[in-house]
Design a protein that fits this description.
There is one protein chain. It is built from seven helices and 26 strands. The strands form seven sheets. Strands 7-4-6-5-9-8 form a six-stranded mixed β-sheet, with no helix packed on it. Strands 16-13-17-21-20-18 form a six-stranded mixed β-sheet, covered by helices on one side. The longest helix has 19 residues.
Length: about 400
Amino acid sequence: MSLPSVEDARTAMLAWAKRLPDETLALADAVGRTLAEDVVAIRDQPPYPASAMDGWALAAADAPGRLRIAGESAAGSPYAARLGRGEAVRIFTGAALPPGADAMVIQEDATRDGDAVTVPAVGAGHYVRPAGCDFRGGETLLTAGMKLDAWRLSLAAAGGRGELRVAKRPRVRFLSTGEEIIDPGRTPGPYQIFDAGTVALVALAQRWGGEARRLRPVGDDIAATVEAVRAQDCDLIVTVGGASVGDHDLVKPALRELGLELAVENVNVRPGKPTWFGRLADGRRVLGLPGNPASSLVCAELFLHPLLRAMQGADPGLELVQAKAAAPFGANGPREHWMRARISTDPDGTLRAEAFGDQDSSLVSVFAIADALVRRPAGAAPLAAGGLVEALLLERA
């Protein structure tokens, strides 16, 4: 049986991804969340012509000259009267220009003498921020599906919003399986390994908007696996390990007792061929990842991240960039290969990708220093240095 490509497998998974409901949060609580509505400005910003510097507001037609000081305009406390001919108003950064003023002279360029100020010639609009120069009332500032960071929250606040409607966070539970798996920090036996991959997967899911939790690992036991999964009130279960077809790979047989229906059984990808996806009888989705850390992390980037984005109403597409090969790539085999790589940038901004020599799927140390995953299509011919490759950049901060 032919295996689906990465793109076909992802499409099948996304077809079963369940968009989560919305909730309304205060701005302070919405950072990192996915916007579920368009944000429209309620008025112009700034709502009035404002001074860009400290200085003197005046009519450009009165400059140069000696002008009578009529008053003061500060942010939040404007000079309300109309400016007369031959008058100037002391003004501070961000304050509204009084009616009749169309320019300002910065304080360094003016000379005050008692109740008068001498100013040089300036043109209309000099050091003035026009009303609406940032955005106009009715303008769409943010669109549904955007991830809210500090800068976007600032824009929403400037547009007059105190609350935002956002997608609920997907509740994700990670379950590692295997007799050899032990919690980090415990004393291992001679043939046990620490559950390193799941720690990283939880961190990634949280970064990608999930409310993620790592469950206690279970051994190669169908009953224990069933009970561990049955007890979870969540939207998505991610199993790590037990995904292949060996005598000890019991996750899918266990979950069939909970009504598992598969959309994807395996994927034509390296690393990560045993990756699978389905849903239980109660509607919870399940993503099965391989136990080797590199395999699980590669497939988290390729499948888990798009799934979480789709569940939050965001665009689930992968954002690939083009880079030049820093060294030759050999011919690829029959599976699409996502190779851990280091990225460098030329002075002209050109990206260069160099794959690490050892791509063994068990190596955590290589992933810890990788900047990207380079995609090599199934059956790709050798590629000389300088040829173009596609790369998925990894978020390292």
